[in-house]
Amino acid sequence: MNLGRxxxxxxxxxxxxxxxxxxxxxxxxxxxxxxxxxxxxxxxSKTCSVPPxxxxxxxxxxxxxxxxxxxxxLKEISVxxxxxxxxxxxxxxxxxxKLSPTKIGINKASTFSGFCSHHDKIxxxxxxxxxxxxxxxxxxxxxxxxxxxxxxxxxxxxxxxxDVKSFxxxxxxxxQIAFQQFAGNAYNGNDLTKNDLAYIxxxxxxxxxxxxxSQLKHVVFELERPPAIMGSAIVAPQFGFDGQSIQRISQNxxxxxxxxxxxxxxxxxxxxxxxxxxxxxxxxAHKLIKQFTEKNYTSDHLVxxxxxxxxxxxxxxxxxxxxxxxxxxxxxxxxxxGITNDHTGLLANVPNLNIAxxxxxxxxxxx
Length: 367
What we know:
SEC-C domain-containing protein, alpha+beta, 16% strand, 10 helices, single chain, SEC_C_motif
């Protein structure tokens, strides 16, 4: 590559070539330790995610808030204080070249440093100190915590992707170029999602500040017992329960796709899976609900749909151990499908996974 030492680097970093990629192929390659240190940055940021109007009340102590309640939910699917997660030992999964769930303590599972001690207590008291009720307040708070967590993760990911760009050290030039294209696409995709979520979070902040919680819409799947898989996230699904396309995602920053907040949890020995969305994102949500009810899908379909979309999921070790090897492989393949975005039709043929039966679908908060 014919560049002068003081020319802008070809990678787009805005640094001079001599300060960036000059002789990078001669530098020591990134190690697993470098990757581990970079991944740790996901947990270093601390902030309070309350609406701007409440930030003057914040305490200085930022705590590790649970997106899935430890006391009412994670304990219900734990064995000796542990649940299973695909990301509890991500470095080992990378080394092994495959994904498999490993143990994580419930004190660490689903946490993010996203609320101060004061607001984590008072903001979520209605759902932490009382039985869950199918009402606008409880469903809003469950969704608000999930969205706050996802905004936090996407902001942290921006820092991680910035560091990852240096992981092409020791590679020949052609692989450096390919690596930078891959890292750049990942960064841009994360940035696009981050902007979408900031927009949605702003809408939720306004609803909360103005006391208009009913503007957020929900459907609640009630289960006979706690589900063996719990999780929390906001997603923009491209496929329905049948594995067919349900919406197309544009790369235009002004074209926000339909997002749905998904929460799976338990309370008072019962299970709940809640879908929440902005009214302006109702098209995809309504398609999904119609499809689910018309085709008489089950809680197995709900859980597999979640696994294909959500990284922040946790499983009951005893439930996982009860699955045959082929079913464990199926679950791992579905999760991997979501990560690689390689849709293979696994959603279309869902086997019996022995997930708690749906006893009622409450649509009273949809309209």
